[in-house]
Automatic annotation (TrEMBL):
Domain of life the protein comes from: Bacteria
Domain (Transcription regulator PadR N-terminal) ranges: 10-84
InterPro entries: Tscrpt_reg_PadR_N (IPR005149), WH-like_DNA-bd_sf (IPR036388), WH_DNA-bd_sf (IPR036390)
Top-level taxonomy: Bacteria, Bacillati, Actinomycetota, Actinomycetes, Micrococcales
Pfam families, A to Z: PadR (PF03551)
The protein's name in its UniProt record: Transcription regulator PadR N-terminal domain-containing protein
Amino acid sequence: MPLARLDVIILSLLTANDRTGYDIHKWLERNGTAVGYNTQPSQIYRQLTRMESVGWAVSSVEERDRGPDAKVFRITEAGTAKLESWIDSPYVPAPRPLDSDFQVRLMFSSPRGPAKMLELVRTELAYRREHEEYRKDLDVDLVPRDATPQLRAWFKESALVQSERGHYMVQTLIAWLESAEVRLKNLVDSQ
């Protein structure tokens, strides 16, 4: 069974510390935009229950002096193995730059150290360099059939502005990837 993004997030958080569903919800409230994920507490609790049923997590009740007792979840060996398998699985960049899957992989593979991060950065960088396209032509399907020459000129200019936006965003991403590659390579070489 492949891991969904919420599975990766929960298993990674449980790898760092035992947590309640509420702890996971609070983490997502703070960091969900960075990993392209936001959810309701009910979904987190359903996912934790499913993880228990497949043996990726176990729970225990933690008695509390104030407030109700808490159900605390801990990752199992099977859960750790599933997460490790995901970390080791081939990363295939998404066609859309800044897709959150790259950020999720980068964030949750970091316990493996700089060599794993360097591998991810190099994969993303190679893909972005290969697929960088500048100045896409006007999509004639967006131009009304009866458009005046002025309207056609405007649609062409609009397409150029949009194409440049994508180009500059990808160029900025490539520059960051190149910088990260140098930094991570230095870390790997110094080990």
